[in-house]
Amino acid sequence: MAINTIMSLLDNKEVMEFLRLGVVYVHLVSCCVAIGLVLTSDVAMVRDLLKRKAFTEHDMAHMESLQRSVVGALIALWVTGIAVIGIDYLDKGMDYFMNPKLHAKVIIVVLLSYNGILLHRLVLPALQKAGSLLNLGFSSRMLALFCGSLSAVSWMYAAMLGVGRPLAWKYSLSELLMAYPVLIALGFLAMLILTQRVRQQDFTVGSQRTVASAC
Length: 215
Prior knowledge:
The structure is a single chain. The chain is mainly α and 215 residues long. It has helices at residues 2-11, 13-50, 57-92, 100-130, 138-163, 173-176, 179-214. The longest helix has 38 residues, at 13-50.
């Protein structure tokens, strides 16, 4: 009886439209929450970097809480995204899976998931140990800057693809993702220049203090 009821609801086009609307709404909210958290974290990190502020235990606890929230939002995106794909498949059939925009979104979400693992297992522990982004070794600092750039760009790019309905079927996968690595590279380069500038300023100040004390 219950199976027959479910099947009849799935065959009802209006019910499926409302179901899809609800799932897409949760999907959109999850994406907005993640973007807000990521951008807030990035702005705070740049501000602390410019102020030469070392991470405190409170900052570390806040960062871990922020990371858990982003992971929760990412899980919600996976669940609701799969649900939307399932609903659209029931409506459009196998041809739906040939959409290049769908491929682009899946690729970016997979990269975000892998990037989240790197942040949780490598970057955050290194930051906790070093106490500051500037105190990280060269390879660890490069990894932190790259992961941060990838995260910020990927969330924004995924949101753009999500709301860009006119992009569906109009462009190939390579065309849809053409700007993606460029934006990541630009973000990484901007953060690299910023950190090197701050490190150079600290080195100059330290040298001046050494000379002054010697005199």
